[in-house]
Design brief:
heterodimer; A: about 220 residues; alpha+beta; B: about 140 residues; mainly alpha; two-stranded antiparallel sheet; 7 helices; elongated
């Protein structure tokens, strides 16, 4: 979705060397209506964007899905940050610590005043799109369908705000402690602690949700 | 067999229960088994045009991998009954390559390198930073 946006694609193509990497297959939910009609959905399809140095060390991370304008703006800002760190005589190690500490404080301030945050876009997100599926698995009732369009549009702004505040604050705090790492070295922590998806768990942390209220567990196990 | 006993127990308990203030559908069975599925299909039918909302001048991508473009239209068709299952299947079959039941699609408009190592090699030459996008599933597949 993000990468079909002209603004986002332009920023990435002009200012970065991009690559994508699959961490594992995405969980899929299939509803077979029994009459030939089958509906398929994904679940827990979280994403993360790492901006790295040319040798592959993480400079910063954008966790989860973003509203395109905010995503493009953050990528431009990180590209400028990278350029600054490349200047001759620049103490990149010292600046690394200062940058992530200042960003931690910035995220805290943004969290304290969400009305002034960057989360002002509209659209649909992975989290918003999958929210009904998760709610369904939990057996919860949905919000009013008539209001769902507005709710869905606003969900991306909500996700962006959470990404920019709560999630990024955790990341900055972690990077201050860890120092430079590669995406592979931090991805499991990121998914588990920031995005709520344990990549080492075959159920990705959804087991309790799936089976807690399901009355046929034992019977299904016998099949 | 246990499943039948469970359903029978639900029916029995519903029959002997006091009449609620307002008529309610078979709450326990529905909430556990059927109602959530109905909700799922209905809720996922809400349309959103991200490209139009964020870049009104931009034309929609021809082969968008997004959830909006590849997932929600099918649900809309099913819910509204405007497109028979066969038509949906035919549309799906036009995807470039079908690996099991997850067709390949274009991964947006970004010019991706063929892996992180290739991006690192290019970055050492261009001096640009690297962007690594992690996901579950494959970016060039329909369900991701």
């Amino acid at each position: 979705m993000l990468f079909s946006n002209d603004q986002v694609a332009s920023v990435i193509n002009e200012q970065f060397e991009p690559a994508w990497q699959s961490l594992r297959p995405v969980p899929r939910v299939t509803i077979d209506f029994g009459n030939g009609t089958v509906v398929k959905r994904t679940l827990h399809g979280n994403v993360a964007t790492y901006v790295c140095t040319p040798d592959g060390k993480v400079l910063d991370i954008l966790p989860g899905i973003y509203e395109p304008k905010t995503y493009a703006r953050e990528l431009r800002r990180l590209a400028r940050q990278f350029d600054q760190w490349q200047q001759p005589g620049f103490d990149s190690a010292a600046h690394w610590q200062a940058y992530h500490r200042s960003q931690t404080e910035s995220a805290k301030r943004m969290l304290a005043s969400p009305g002034k945050s960057a989360a002002s876009g509209r659209g649909a997100s992975i989290f918003a799109t999958e929210r009904p599926t998760r709610r369904t698995i939990r057996g919860e009732r949905p919000p009013n369908l008539a209001a769902a369009s507005t709710s869905l549009s606003d969900s991306l702004a909500e996700d962006t705000l959470i990404n920019q505040t709560t999630r990024r604050r955790k990341i900055h705090e972690r990077l201050v402690k860890s120092g430079p790492v590669t995406p592979d070295e931090i991805s499991k922590w990121l998914y588990r602690e920031v995005l709520g998806t344990d990549l080492d768990d075959p159920y990705l942390g959804l087991k309790e949700m799936l089976f807690k209220n399901y009355p046929f567990v034992e019977e299904d196990a016998e099949d | 067999m246990k499943r039948l006993w469970f359903l029978a127990a639900l029916v029995t308990s519903a029959a002997v229960a006091q009449e609620p203030a307002e008529p309610r559908a078979d709450v326990a069975k529905g909430r556990v088994v059927e109602r959530p599925t109905e909700i799922l299909v209905a809720e996922l039918s809400v349309p959103v045009d991200l490209a139009a909302e964020t870049a009104p001048e931009a034309k929609p991508a021809a082969a968008d991998r997004t959830k909006r473009a590849v997932i929600e239209p099918a649900a809309e068709a099913i819910v509204r009954g405007t497109q028979p299952p066969d038509a949906a299947a035919a549309e799906e079959s036009t995807a470039a390559t079908v690996a099991d039941d997850n067709p390949r699609v274009e991964p947006g408009k970004v010019q991706w390198h063929d892996g992180v190592d290739a991006a690192i090699t290019a970055a050492k030459s261009s001096g640009k930073p690297i962007l690594v996008f992690h996901l579950l599933g494959e970016l060039d597949q329909r369900f991701t």
